[in-house]
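Dear all,

This email documents one entry for the complex benchmark we are building for the journal club exercise. For each entry we list the sequence lines for every component of the assembly. Then comes the predicted three-dimensional structure of the complex as a token string, followed by one or two observations. Please use this as the template for your own entries, and keep the labels exactly as they appear.
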Amino acid sequence: MAKRYGMVIDLKRCVGCQTCALVCKLENHQPLGLWWNRVLTIGGPEIDTPFGTYPDLQMSFLPIACQHCEDPPCVEVCPVGAAYKREDGLVLINWETCIGCRYCIVACPYGVRVYNWRSTKEQEIPDFQVGAPEVPARPLGVGEKCTFCVHRVDKGLQPACIPCPSRARFFGDLNDPNSEVSKLIKEKGGYQLKSELGTNPSVFYLPAKR
Amino acid sequence: MKAATIRPDSKNLYAWIAVLVAIIAGAAYAWTVQTIEGLGVTGLTNVMPWGLYVQFFGFLLGMGGGAIIVSAAMDAAGMQTFKSISRISIVVGVVAVALGSVFILGDLGRPERAIYFFISPNWESSMVWDMIFMILFLVLAVGYGWFSMRADLARKRSPLALGVNDVSEKALRRDRTMSRILAGGTVVVGALLANQASLTSWTLSEHEVLETLSMRLLLAPLFLLSALTSGVAVLLLVVAILSRFTDIKIASNTRESLAKMLAVLVVLNLAVLVAEAAILDFRGRVLFSVIMEGPYAPILWSAIAIGAAVPLAMLAYPRTRRLGSTVALASVLSLAGVFLIRYSLLLQGTLYPHIAYPLGIPIQAIPQTVWSTVGSYTPTFIEVIVSAGILAFGALLLTFAVKILPLKRERSA
Amino acid sequence: MRISRRRFLKLAAGAAAVSATVYGFGSARALSLPIPPATFRTSQAGSPQAVEKIVHGACAPNCWSGCKLLVHVRDGKLVKTEMGPLQDTRYDRICLRGLTHVQRTYHPDRLQYPMKRVGERGEGKWQRISWDEAIDTIAAKLTGIKEKYDSKAVCFVTTSGYYGILNGFYGANVRFANMFQGTYGSAALDSAMPLGMFQVLGGPSHNQGNEAADLANAKTIIVWGSNVTESNLQNWHFVADAIDNGGKLIVINPNFTIGASKADIWVSVRPGSDTALALAMVDVIIKNTLYDRQFLLDHTVAPFLVRQDNGQFLREKDVVQGVSDKYMVWDQASNKAVPFDASGLTPALTGTYSVKGMQSDTAFQLLSDLAEQYSPEKSKTITGVPENVVEKVAHEYATSKPATIYWGFGLDRYHHADLTGRALAILAALTGNIGKPGATPWGGFGGATLVSSPLRTGKWTNPTGTSATFLNNLLVYDAIEKGEPYPIKALVVTNCNYVITFPNQNKILHDLFPKLDFIVVADLFMTDTAKYADIVLPSTSWFENEDVVASMHPHVMFQEKAIEPLCECKSDLEIFTLLGNKMGAGEQWNKTAEEYMQLIFDDQKLRDAGITLEKLKSEGSLRVVPSPYIPFQDLKFKTPSGRIEFYSEKLNEKLPVFHPPIEAWPDNPLATKYPLVCIQAGSRFRVHTQYFNTPWLRELDPRPFVEINPSDAKLRGVNNGDVVEVYNDRGNVKLHAKLSEALRPGMVNISRGCTTSQFIQGNSQQLVADHRNPDTLNCSFFDTLVEVKKA
């Protein structure tokens, strides 16, 4: 059976430390102001604040990046076919074809696609490219998003965000019932975000409270 | 037939063109800045990736379609009611729709790659269908216009007659037939275009809502109605301007019919809006109250006030309806109203996070950060100037068209 | 006037031409910009052909995590740091800060060359000088001060900016200080809780807890006074493992930390009242007989009789003259006091007995009586914790074993923190939660300094046998200000941001610094301390020199020299080598880093343990401490009695009573003026002031803030994001307010480590006092009262 790459993120273990956001930022040398992976606070109105009133409080975190949907709305709406889905489940962008119309950003129900809005050359520190050399530098005015580190996956490695201080992130073949991700989803009740939309994401979350 | 003459004073014309050129020059510079620095110089963000440019795109395509539909429909049916303005409406329609596409081009992050629309179009994409309908519409409308004006062009020995100079009865009849067929096609495609373009440009705010079939059924009439309203309004406006500054005279009863039509359309537009709001209310109060009472509600309410109530008042009374200046003002207000209603509904999109959890957003004086999943949108100076420039370009094209095309009918041909 | 068509056409054509030209020009210019192919930026470092080498490295600042890194270098430039494998892969780790070294290393604000001050201290006027001039000046100054006062008048200050053996806080600087016989400012930080632990359990100091990986074995973990996910992020996954294995997490912290959000029970205790809470738990455990009786009898001083008249243990020689010093217990079988090591005993655990006319209680009885005074009902007014919660937590800890107390230095920051340390050790002793897998009174850090001690032997740190004078950093204040116990006239600051780390900033800047003849600072950036230096020296970053690194997990790591030093930067070793040679100690400073490392590893004990420099270099890391590290498994305690001494006859407080914090307590009259307790919690976006200017981290954490509960904020008319002033008698700071329900009402938190330039005005370290507890001489940063007002 064909591979279907997927990710599992354990929200019970996740402490919102932002390491996965940073490792992605470094690996894919993203410019200032642009983040492919973000960790949102499920709590109060500010980062790291809970909801409720002292002392009845609750807080958890949601790391969110491209969900690599099986039925991606972004692929459907891209007018020039720059957004495409591979056989093994990865949803990718062809940065040579993207015209920067941002329809995919509008269409994504998770809000995980971002856009290269500004030239930040002057402000970048350091002033040379860092991170992985296999990841292309994106020109101004194109859409970007998590690629499941396709440059690493194709070499048999895992995405850069998997080594997490909380050991809360897992990657593997969802079509293999014996893979770690499949077992985690089954045993710990993995769920998808906005599953009612029918996008069938490849990223599953394990509940924060269980 | 003489070409229309511009009067009363060439100084007006020079001034007019000078102003337009100045605006266009400013827009060109602004657009250059936008291309070099990136679209970040506009007010657009990941929370609101489509703003003023796409709004104008949708609005203009609707307006252009709407402008042609009314007179072309009559024309196709063989009715004489709006014959005098049919050529004007064609020109306005073509220019408006073409202008809409320029807005999209100006909105792209990599405009030099627009050619990929043709190299590798994705047929599932709504935007590709925008383009297809638009091209089809332009072809049909230009064809319709050419067949309507060919005889007059030939008489003037204009190169725009494309060498077909036969002005015999037979030729005229053929022209007439082709005109009517193409008029019909233009109406159909124009309606589809208005619907389609609005659908695309509205996806941002409505995608949560589009799921219900009832909403989808209601959206088509809303788009069509807003297209017709803006189309008729712009026609009225152009007619008023032409009457004042050229010797193109449109019969006052024609103008009055148009004005009455505008009044009716404004009412219908409002009715459909209320119906949509009612359905939203039925579906979920939150959405409704946000639209009606949220931070962008003032825009919506002023749109209704100045864009509907005032024009309606002006057009409802025969006395005011007959005054050229009032009608012109009412048209401008109606256009603004349609635009603002769409705009305010677009802005609602910024209020709904995609991921519906309470969110963590760090303290920032700047309202939008890398974290923001909700935010606000205000167009920047660059966006306004570029938009103004493109609109000025359209105005320039219209001025040009008035001069070289036989828009004035000496006799009904 | 009519305009002819031709004229019009010309006009129109002209207008069109102009428009087209402008538009076309603009567009052409835009389009002619080089559009990079969607491959690589033009810089060579990004070119795929550029050779990439990957070297061993370590990120080791004061987060205590010591992450092994794989350091990627392309074209001589650092391009990536990623998590590297440790020999014991359970400890593999990386965090958001360690990923930003590319930004920290190449930050444009890095100091590039030595500078000397021209103008007043703190004015910010500098003149570039050569290294020769810098070293000459420093040598002359230090020699001059030595001759005028004493070599002790030069104080070498450091805190834990780096854990390298050569260039870290206890490396070349100590070697130099020992040789020069200066003063070495020591301790005063994070030392009261460990002292308390030590007083009860004996050594090895700072190693009384099981290693971090052992946390996963616990059935109950109490995270007490630790913001573990912010300050010890790398220990969290072990705790999460324990939870996944069915364990329970209890978090005792005044505020709802991220750790608290993961807890089964969160206890919001009044800040500074933890000793009382611990004693309340002791009371519950004793009253419900949940203690491990046999453990108490066999391994603690519980049965030892204590004389009521002098509070000392009853000795055999008190009972029978001329005999031994042995401790006495009451044998219930024979109904008399006998030496504790007699055979066939049934020692009494509780009770008061009369021995030769001397009333004596068992130590356990004394503990019991003390705990009764802090029963849950009685201590509720002190701690604010309801009785049922205390009972529940105590029950869990005592019965759901093995249980670990994971305490953090949040507890250390109050005036009487040593007593808290003792109380927590007592809880472990009471329940036998010590010396077993999953059970320890100091979870998360065990074994750490056992790594560095063998490497910091005298042959590296003290070649001449002379020694620096180790003076407590709080006493250094007095030495500078008043010349007591002796004058200190110069500061040599390395691996330290003195002005931000130590308390009472206004005192430092206005009372201490003006008394100093000379201040030299070596750092990467113009920190708040470097601003006040007379000579500033540019330091290398960790990747610009090689070193051996020992942080807080059981490994030693190797840092290869990944890139050449930037500009004129020099490592601490290089600086002290230059200085040493200039000052006539060339013989002690004649080796390269490589040679020193070989010297350090030339040790039979290390070789016997299989630790050689060659092996370390090829593996990158070696686990030095045998696994698992679980101290006290042999139940031998290096205390005077050889047992766990929850009763210490030599200390002022024989048992840990509760004393309120010296300032941060509602009864304090100051509290009417300054009602809010101000803590300065750690933040995962910085390590104290390191990483303060890293752009990626500042994107996530852009500016300093004071966290305040919305109810407190409302009283003061403060809304989220407002600029407020936080002040007390010592100083003030202006910054933004962040309203959070997580904050306990009556407390505010200003995340520590922000530099003065980041605040709107002032600095949070102005608020903190240099309280002196003569028993601990430890900085008590959280023992601070402030008020907040809208600015």
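Observations: Chain A has one domain: 5-206. The two ends of chain A are 32 Å apart (CA to CA).
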